[in-house]
Amino acid sequence: MNRYVIYTSLLIFGVILPLAMITAWLTTPPPAPSTPPAPVLFPKLQLPKVPLPTGDDPESIVLRHAILNGERIYQRLCHHCHGRLGKGDNNDYMASIGRKPADHSDLAAMQKLSDEEFFVALRDGVKDERGWLTMPPWASVLTGQEMRDVIVYVRHLPLAASPN
Ligand code: HEC
Questions:
Q1: Alpha carbon of 35 to those of 24, 28, 39: distances in Å?
Q2: E strands within the chain?
Q3: What is the pTM of this model?
Q4: Cα(135) to centroid of ligand 1, in Å?
Q5: Can you list the domains of the chain with their CATH numbers?
Q6: Which comes out higher in pLDDT, residue 116 or 43?
Q7: What band does 46 get if pLDDT is binned at 50, 70 and 90?
Q8: Of 14, 44, 71, 125, which alpha carbon lies 20 to 30 A from 149's?
Q9: Pocket test for ligand 1, best of 81, 104, 115 (most atoms within 8 A of CB)
């Protein structure tokens, strides 16, 4: 390769090209700030307002924790069929085959169910006369304590004020 070609390539690749790149870099305007994406709006949950004990004594603290934990569980796992307010009105199919769940906010109706029966219904599910599950069992999902907390929450639903 003759000297002329080497000098020319050195000039192009060693000086002119880097200078052109630096100039391009310095003169390119920064990208226009992109508009932030529109916030995704979730509808506010309409939950029944269960009265919470306010005291600092151990009983109030334990009860408050049980109600809040029960609410968390009920409003995640149970509302799909029992409804946000516990009225048993969120599963049209079960209602259409005559298996509408009880109204958990109806004190008189719920008093027919002892805590023991409630626990067994939760743990093992509810079956119809053929032995088919009409309500799923929760023993593999919830611990005994979680089932007791959800019972405490449901027991307080008749006292709840409706959401505004
Ligand atoms: C897939 C729908 C579904 C889910 C989810 C569900 N249930 Fe039920 N549940 C039912 C149906 C339907 C009945 C009525 C069954 C019957 O009478 O044969 C029922 C009955 C019950 C009963 C007996 C009294 C009543 O309401 O009729 C209790 C207590 C109960 N469910 C509590 C719960 C709790 C607590 C959860 C959440 C951990 C829950 N259920 C989740 C469908 C569901």
A1: 26, 20, 12
A2: 126-127, 133-135
A3: 0.79
A4: 5
A5: 58-159 (1.10.760.10)
A6: 116
A7: confident
A8: 44
A9: 81
